[in-house]
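PROTEIN DESIGN WORKSHEET
SECTION A - STRUCTURE
LENGTH: 405
TOKENS:
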């Protein structure tokens, strides 16, 4: 994963004949201030200077699977280069014969086209001969909040989770991005009082145009430092964007941030499967009513069946109130209905949430140490970060502006 906030540099040498591949690599690495990128037009030239190759942190070489001369050239380059860096080979075809040949040449990794930016970044980070912060092995941690019913309070939970992650690093804030994937009725920008700048119509004709520089134009920044990706509301317009647009957007976000939080729409789109498969944690948010519990359980079952249990949904029941001597659902009822996926019940505090939304501030600024934030902290942050993250949130209250950024 690339990180825009590190100071050391990585040297990436690329040899590629495919112009589209070279352009994609340039969009992935070329805009980073911490990566020195050189792209040599392919095919692999016989006269490539071994001394130049030796200076690289990692080399990326495109090899045509049916061109024996390119395999020979790559083998000679690795053999002739003293202290040769790890080589990531990219091929248009892949089978046992090609795999064996590449193993004999001793490439560090091999990818088959088409190659996504995040996949290439992970491969380079994994094989780099020296650990650098510009090419880190750690991937972005991605959290998704998906509503099981309408009005479940998903946006509130997503916003607060993003704020917790942003402050989890103490004095040094990890790069954190909140992505509102409800392109029709999204409310993240309104909750944080920032201007939604994502213009999907502009990038839909050519998804490959979306690079780090264009993404920066479409990012909104909250006063706390939280990055927000949100599109203007279009309540009278129902659109389903090309999945390539959403995939390209999320690939770029995952490469450039440490933590990413998705506020998911309830409607299932053609790109929803890929988003859920790419998440580290998926939270299904339901309500403590009999119909709400039924729909939550149905959604969990549907996701497990649809995605072959490659995704493990975790259930949050929001706005839960349990009274000892009053009718209504108890926690034991929720456990019996939902079962193992139930991981948390968020207490109901409508007055607190309403005030935070109306003022465009976080729950912590309205009431430090409130029960909703405490429950989310246990759910989102590892144990070692909970105590460390508590002080900045409580001791240093955020000063938010109602002026549009």
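SECTION B - SEQUENCE
RESIDUE ASSIGNMENT:
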């Amino acid at each position: 994963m690339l990180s825009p906030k590190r100071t050391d540099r990585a040297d990436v040498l690329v040899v590629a004949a495919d112009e589209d591949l070279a352009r994609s690599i340039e969009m992935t690495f070329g805009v980073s201030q911490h990566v020195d990128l050189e792209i040599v037009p392919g095919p692999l030239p016989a006269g490539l200077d071994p001394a130049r190759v030796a200076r690289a942190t990692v080399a990326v070489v495109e090899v045509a699977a049916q061109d024996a001369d390119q395999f020979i050239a790559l083998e000679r380059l690795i053999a002739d280069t003293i202290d040769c860096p790890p080589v990531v080979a990219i091929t248009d075809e892949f089978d046992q014969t090609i795999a064996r040949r590449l193993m004999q040449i001793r490439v560090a990794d091999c990818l088959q086209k088409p190659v996504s930016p995040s996949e290439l970044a992970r491969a380079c980070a994994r094989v780099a001969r020296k650990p650098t912060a510009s090419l880190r092995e750690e991937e972005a941690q991605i959290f998704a909040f998906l509503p099981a019913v309408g009005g479940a309070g998903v946006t509130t939970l997503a916003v607060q989770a993003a704020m917790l992650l942003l402050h989890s690093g103490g004095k040094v804030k990890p790069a954190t991005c909140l992505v509102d994937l409800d392109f029709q009725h999204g409310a993240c920008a309104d909750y944080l009082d920032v201007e939604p700048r994502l213009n999907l119509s502009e990038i839909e004709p050519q998804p490959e145009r979306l690079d780090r520089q264009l993404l920066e134009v479409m990012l909104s920044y909250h006063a706390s430092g939280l990055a927000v990706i949100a599109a203007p509301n279009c309540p009278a317009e129902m659109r389903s964007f090309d999945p390539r647009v959403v995939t390209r957007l999320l690939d770029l976000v995952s490469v450039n941030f440490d933590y990413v939080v998705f506020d998911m729409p309830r409607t299932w789109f053609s790109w929803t499967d890929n988003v859920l498969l790419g998440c580290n944690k998926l939270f299904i948010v339901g309500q403590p009513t009999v119909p709400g519990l039924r729909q939550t359980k149905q959604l969990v079952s549907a996701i497990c069946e649809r995605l072959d249990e490659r995704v493990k949904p975790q259930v949050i029941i929001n706005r839960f109130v349990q009274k000892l001597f009053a009718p209504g659902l108890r926690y034991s009822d929720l456990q019996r209905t939902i079962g193992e996926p139930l991981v948390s019940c968020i207490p109901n505090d409508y007055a607190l949430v309403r005030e935070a939304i109306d003022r465009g501030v976080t729950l912590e600024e309205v009431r430090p140490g409130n029960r909703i934030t405490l429950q989310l902290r246990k759910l989102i942050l590892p144990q070692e970060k909970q105590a460390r993250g508590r002080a900045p949130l409580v001791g240093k209250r955020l000063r938010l502006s109602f002026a549009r950024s």
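SECTION C - NOTES
The chain has two domains: 10-127, 141-395.
The CA atoms of residues 294 and 337 lie 8 Å apart.
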